[in-house]
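Our working data are protein records whose layout never changes between entries. Instead of coordinates, the fold is spelled out as a row of discrete tokens. Here is such a record, shown just as it appears in the course material:
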Amino acid sequence: MVSLRTGIPAGEISWTVKPYVRKENAAAMDLVKSWAVTSMEFLHCDLIQTVPAILFSLGGFSGNHFHDFSDLVIPLYITSRQFNGEVQFVVTDNRHWWISKFRGILAKLSRYNIVDIDQERKTHCYPSMIVGLKYHHELGIDQSKSQLSMKDFRQFLRRTYSLKRAKAIKIGDDARKMPRLLIITRRKSRSFTNIDKITRVASSLGYNVVTMEPNISTSLGSVAETVNSCDVLMGIHGAGLTNMVFLPDNAIVIQIVPLGSIDELAKQDFEQPAMDMELRYLEYKIKAKESSLISKYKADHLIIKDPLSVHKQGWDAVRSVYLDKQNVKLDVKRFRPTLLKALQLLHQ
């Protein structure tokens, strides 16, 4: 694979690069192939392309819905939008299911076939090439670094999936319509253990309640359509909340923060991105009695009373205890004011 314009004299410089955004995360980068970039004279091209290329990896944390958007889809949008489709995507560490899942988005960003460069035996020559993707922050775009915004990205998603709603319901505009509340459910860790009770309480307050448990095989178009039809999205901290990208403007995100002193993570991953997306954000932090961990550990155990002591053991310990082994039984009486606050916001 050759870029015909490097701006570097032949033979003067060479380096290696892994075209994935989480350079500081060793676990992610271990799953990314290294590429050598070398300035050299090259005379033979099997295929001469007329448009620039973007090389990126589908390794790393791809397959996790949050990282699919934060590490790949949004950075790819930032990097490629300037070409208005006149760019070819070259992927390494290819995952065919990933291409299939995001084909609708990829087709809107590039008019050309995707090249699986690891399987190529011919030399492709491009007028220029971008190696790696531009990344700003979790699930977002920094407008000081780009002419694009998350508003632009969300409009792009609406066009891509033909989503009908640009704005959430304003209660009072049509008294006959009930606001739709989407509850993201999970089957393994961080699941609601009393979802039926939560649904009954929300329904009694005037919500039309919908539940969804998306997985890796769920059609993204179907997910987008369901989420876009709703006015409030709630779920326990986790990848499912990423689907807020499909909500209409002024919709509300309710993040349930589990036990574990993960406030900063909750803010970085979903609170700040929600506000950047012109969504309203509410947060509900559970008490120890609402956590399944209280049935495994006594109330005075450090895991319950001092989560920061677990943080000192490193991220793997935090993830294992508070993210991988915790479910939530919401105290619906305590949670009720949060649902009422969301209704109040939908009146504004």
Observations:
- The two ends are 55 Å apart (CA to CA).
